[in-house]
Amino acid sequence: MEALRTVRIRPRGEAEGAFAGPHKSHFRGTAVEFADYREYSPGDDIRQVDWKVFARTDRHYLRLYDAERNLLTYQVVDKSVSMEFAGVVTRTASKLEHAARLAAAISYLVLREGDELGLSLVDTRLHQHLSAAASWAQLNRVLDTLGRLRAEGRTDLGAGLEQVFAQTKRRGILIILSDFLEADPRFWKAIDLFRRSRFDVMFFQIVHPEEFELPAVLAARFLDPEGDGVFNTEPDAIRNLYRRRFAAFVSEIKANCQARGCDWYLANTAEDVHGFLRRCFLAREGGP
Amino acid sequence: MNWPAFTNPWMLAGLVAVGLPVLIHFLTRARPQRIAFPPFKFLVAACAGRQSVHRLRTVLLLALRCLLVLALALLFTRPFLKPNDAPANPQAARRVVLFLDASLSMRAVHQGISLFDRAQAEAAGVLRDLPAGTEAAVILEGATPRSLLPALSANLPALHDELVKARSTYECGDPAAALALAQKLLGGAGTIYIFSDFQKSNWEGVRELPGGILCRLRPVVTEAEDNVAITTAQLIPAAPVVGEPVEVVCTVFNCTARPREETVRLELGEFTRETRVALPPFGSADAVFNLAFPRAGSFAGKVTLPPDDLPEDNTRYLAANVGKSLAVLLVCDADATDWQGPAFYLGHALVPSPQAAPGLQLIFRRSQDLDRGVLETADVFVLAAPVTLTGEALEIITRRVQEGARLITFLDGPTAPDLMIAALAPPFQLQRAVESGSGEPVLTGPHKLFQDLDAADFSALRFHRHLQNQVLTNRAGDVLLAYPDGSAALTLSAAGQGAMVLANLPLTPDGGDFIGHPLFPALVHELLRAVRHDAAEHAVTPGAAWMLDVPTAGDGAVTVIDPENQPGAVQVLASGRNTRLALRAAKIPGVYTVKQGEAVVACAAVNVDPQESDTRPLALENLKTGAGSTVTILHDEEELAFAGKTRPLWPSLAAAAAILLGLEMLLPACWRNAGSAPVATAEKRRAVAG
Q1: What is the pLDDT of residues B273-317, one digit of tens each?
Q2: Residue B413: in which H helix or E strand, if any?
Q3: pTM for this prediction
Q4: Spatial distance between the Cα atoms of B398 and B104, rounded to a whole number of angstroms
Q5: Smallest Cα–Cα separation from B230: which of B302, B313, B111, B157?
Q6: Can you tell me the distance from the alpha carbon of B254 to that of B276, in angstroms, rounded to the nearest whole number?
Q7: Which of B27, B266, B642, B675 could be joined to B647 by an S-S link, Cβ 3.0–4.6 Å?
Q8: Could you say which residues from 653 to 682 on chain B have a Cβ atom under 8 Å away from some Cβ of chain A?
Q9: Is B35–A245 a contact, with Cβ atoms under 8 angstroms apart?
Q10: How open is the CA angle A218-A220-A224, to the nearest 5 degrees?
Q11: Chain B window 30-89: which residues touch A at a Cβ cutoff of 8 Å?
């Protein structure tokens, strides 16, 4: 956690939380930043009347200040079976475990700033949803939920995100942790839905090293975890072709994200979670 | 070659090791690991169609390894091939004749080298490889076969020296004679190596290969060379006179499988002409040049085609000895001015005017006016019944015709049987006179007189009488015209060195309407032309001794200059008005000039034999094998080198093993580079991640 001490998650736009917080918002409030003057109307708080202006002009004006609100962060974790892969030769945490660790670390970062955090688990639908809250008790709930996470079901991120969108009240940051292997048009439509509502969307694409290179075994019987497909081969014979194909897929996801103004990060399960997050959020802030 | 034998046959047990790669493959084959792999769809998409290729590569690699082990196992057995034509008698292997075709067709150039040079080099190689103690001979096949040494000799170096000095000839080959000489030299047992192009036109005359002898046939070429040749060039008439229209007829032969068009060029005296001739595949066509010699004398020339792979037969030499005039002696007892008699019509038909018959000198004599001088100088005798010749006159005419003079005899009336000179072998026998009031037509016979005149022209003619006769067996080809009863009306036949026409046609107005017909003068002149036309080109070929009759004057020595301007050996056989010369076999084709003193008295052409121009090879399987003989065909130089020898196979096996080993190492490396690569580094992955 020491690595994340200086890391802050800030929205690219204005925060729209219900409570006061550290983030700039479009609301007027009682912060120290002067925003504007407004003529007094009956019922206004007379404590906001600028008496120096009254003395000069003999008219009542109110001093208006920016309001600072907290941030709403929604985390969506893909819990389909494809996230269960933990490698064959290069054993690491499974993609789901890695996603859970990332989600936990992000939860801590969010709640530490007093921002509100929600969590959704999806496979072919919204499986579990924790509404956004800003208490430490929420962190306990999140950790408890992530701790009980089990990979199951096929993937339909598009359907799951549509349901998540229906649960959101205000705009904020949407963080999706998935391998995006089934990123179909419906998924990208759901992303567009969030973007039109001015959500900041961050993609964390979880990839195991053996998904880049194929497992280093002499012969393999590959099974489709979300289907019935079987494919016998010697990985050495096809490694080059596969590697090109998978790299093209990753590039395609990245390009789609960038086209929609979303942030995209490739999370390798072999990498340290905290170092990775520090690097990601500092880069987002424009840091080193 | 037969099946291989092995020096170490017990090492064949090593062949069981061939199964070793298969065994190792199955024993070490990796058990596939079950992996639930999330990006499964990319795996399938990326590798679509690669699985079968991979499986094929695996099988290929396995086969390569098996073959490699097989080659190594066989290598240790030291296999070899035994010759299947080894002579049963060991002595036969030590008696060898190298038969080298030196005929004209071997001068053809194939892939930049003449066939003879190739055959000579191969024969020299065989000679060098013969084991010490072998007795050998080399026979050059030409018109007359020639052995380089008179008998089999164990002095192989000397024989080798003689062989490399040998040169091809311009002669027509006689393989049968050369084989007979080879058999004679071998004495019934031995080996003959035959280096030849096995030209069908020569070799189909060989009834069978010598018996009891091992024959190794080495065809130095397997396909017919592209060859176009002038096979004949004739002057018609053969002995023209000044001003007379002369045809030079050249036959061009196309020995290729495609139609061609060639330019034929004539250079004769001061004449130079060219013409194009279309040639069918493996067929002939004639090129005809018309000319008239302006003066008497000897003219030398040639007819040429553009050069090809066998240029020697693209030139045919011509020699024209042009006389001052043609003396035609018309003998008839009828009055030349009597328009009822044959002499009147014949005389007018032969010489209508001096311009119409240039060079023709007509001499008219009654039989009682004939003298020895006119009989000895006439070139053509025309006898028209009624005529009663003395025995001496008949004897002179007979001798002159046998020596080369021409005779035209018109048979009619009671004196006709006297004009049938038995010594000149007439083609029919006279039987009796036949009269027909309404007139008999004539039909064209098998021998055509006019090439472009159809039979209808003659069918208009009617003859009221003729002499019934019987054409002799095998002489039907001499008949030009015939009566419906089968009697010959007009014949043309050879008589000694001359030629004879017998016309069973009445030449009087009451005998038919022939003499009044416009066809009559044309027929007479065509007969005169035909009777002076040699049936065949008077061909002298290199390699054959020849004789020459030349008109000489006085006792001056006669010399013959060959085409290379070298005087040749001449023997005078007879002298007189003509001198008969015997000459040695000509070595090269060309025009040979006969001089008396410094004056050129005649010239003669020596030309290559047209048989050599047909370069199509014989199917060697069609050669009949003699009793007890073995025939082997050596298709290439390798077979020639190992003919009759034990051939070790280990070099080939070692090379095969090396190649297989190289492939076994090279192919997986290539496939690895093409289909796979080392696992990417973390840096590369980061680069992908951006």
Answers
A1: 999 999 999 999 999 999 999 888 888 999 999 999 899 999 999
A2: none
A3: 0.58
A4: 40
A5: B313
A6: 14
A7: B642
A8: 671-672, 675-677, 679-680
A9: no
A10: 155
A11: 30-47, 50-51, 54
* Mean pLDDT confidence for B447-474: 76
Q: What angle do CA B49, B53, B54 make, to 5 degrees?
A: 110
> Are B590 and B565 contacting, i.e. CB atoms less than 8 angstroms apart?
no
Contact between B538 and B575 (Cβ < 8 Å) = no
Q: Which of B470, B465, B463, B506 is nearest to B487 (CA)?
A: B470
The rounded distance, in Å, linking the Cα atoms of B570 and B566 is 12
C-alpha count within 13 angstroms, C-beta hemisphere, residue B262: 30
What is the least distance, in Å, from the CA of A258 to any CA of chain B?
A: 12
Those residues with Cβ within 8 angstroms of residue B570's Cβ, 6 or more apart along the chain or in another chain: B558, B559, B560, B581, B582, B583
Distances (CA, A) of B71 to B7, B63, B501, B666: 15, 12, 82, 18
Cα distance between residue B418 and residue B391, in whole Å: 10
Helix (H, G, I), strand (E, B) or coil at B582: strand
3-state helix, strand, coil in chain A (%, to 5): 40, 30, 35
Q: What is the pLDDT of residues A28-62, one digit of tens each?
A: 565 556 667 888 888 888 887 888 888 888 888 88
SS (H, E, C) B207-253: CCCCCCEEEEEEECCCCCCCEEEEEEEEEECCCCECCCEEEEEEEEE
Chain A: closest CA distance from residue B28 (Å): 11
Residue A113 φ then ψ, to 5°: -85, 0
**Token reading at B206:** 């060989």
Q: What residue spans of B501-585 are helical by DSSP H?
A: 519-531
Is the confidence at residue B617, as pLDDT, over 80? yes
Structure tokens at B624: 């009949």
How many residues does this entry show for chain B? 690
Closest CA to A248 of B457, B41, B643: B41
Nearest of B678, B59, B58 to residue A236 by alpha carbon: B678
The stretch B633-659 carries a mean pLDDT of 83
Chain A touched by B271 (CB under 8 Å): no
Enumerate the H helices of B512-649 as residue ranges. 519-531, 637-641
At residue B79 the predicted structure's pLDDT band, cuts being 50, 70 and 90, is: confident
| Inter-residue contact A24 to A66 (CB < 8 Å) | yes
Tokens of B136: 């050998």
Q: B123 near B326, Cβ under 8 Å?
A: no
Query: What's at B34, amino acid-wise?
Result: R
Could you tell me how many residues make up chain A?
288
Question: How, if at all, do strands B95-101 and B113-114 pair?
Answer: unpaired
**Using one digit for the tens of pLDDT, what is the confidence trace for A194-210?**
999 889 899 999 999 99
Residue B180 one-letter amino acid = A
**Cβ-based contacts of B45 with chain A (< 8 Å):** 245
B35/A266 touch (CB, cutoff 8 Å), yes or no: no
